[in-house]
Specification:
Helix content is 18%, strand content 55%.
């Protein structure tokens, strides 16, 4: 899904760059045009918003990034200051935030880095949970978030620390992997 959004953004930016370059190159010789093409920076956008809709026309994912960069001859797109909202299978909205992400154009997952936070309501709960870590992979197709890094889960006024996590956000299930420290009491 993210691939389709990034591909659409790339097409729009490429069309804009083509129009801009064709206006700049009028009257230029062929050697200047070939030098520009060889050093072209790929595409870039500021304050980008990408929306993937479901069959019902409602947004499944809304991804906002302060900056989007793709370098030539690379299939990796770099995103900075990311905010993403998505609906799970019950219609609840989850929020994901991170400082940066590297996304392969053909992939359906995001690798997120730096102050990563995921907030939403887990299965069987009425209160929101927040997952905090420094790195997280999120598969947009399966809506599964995973990390092998240290993670903190804050939920219902309680706090657990662990190393590693697997969160199926579609089904609203969170599983801490190892070295779990904390106590939930009612």
């Amino acid at each position: 899904m993210i691939f389709r959004l990034l591909a659409l953004l790339a097409i729009v930016l490429a069309l804009g760059a083509t129009v801009f370059l064709s206006q700049q190159q009028e009257g230029s010789d062929a050697s200047v045009a070939s030098e520009v093409a060889r050093n072209e920076p790929g595409y870039s956008a500021k304050d980008a918003t990408l929306i993937e809709t479901g069959e019902d026309g409602l947004p499944l994912y809304t991804l906002r990034a302060a900056k989007v960069d793709q370098t030539p001859r690379s299939d990796i797109v770099h995103l900075t200051d990311i905010a993403m909202d998505f609906r799970d299978s019950s219609g609840s909205v989850w929020n994901l935030r991170a400082n940066r992400s590297d996304v392969r154009q053909a992939a359906e997952s995001l690798d997120l880095y730096g102050d990563v936070r995921v907030t939403g309501v887990p299965s069987g709960s009425k209160s929101a949970a927040q997952i905090s870590t420094e790195m997280l992979s999120f598969d947009t197709r399966t809506e599964v978030a995973t990390t092998h890094a240290p993670v903190t889960l804050e939920w219902a006024g309680q706090k657990l620390n662990a190393v590693g996590l697997r969160a199926n956000l579609k089904d609203r299930h969170i599983r801490l992997e190892s070295e779990v420290h904390g106590l939930f009491s009612r």
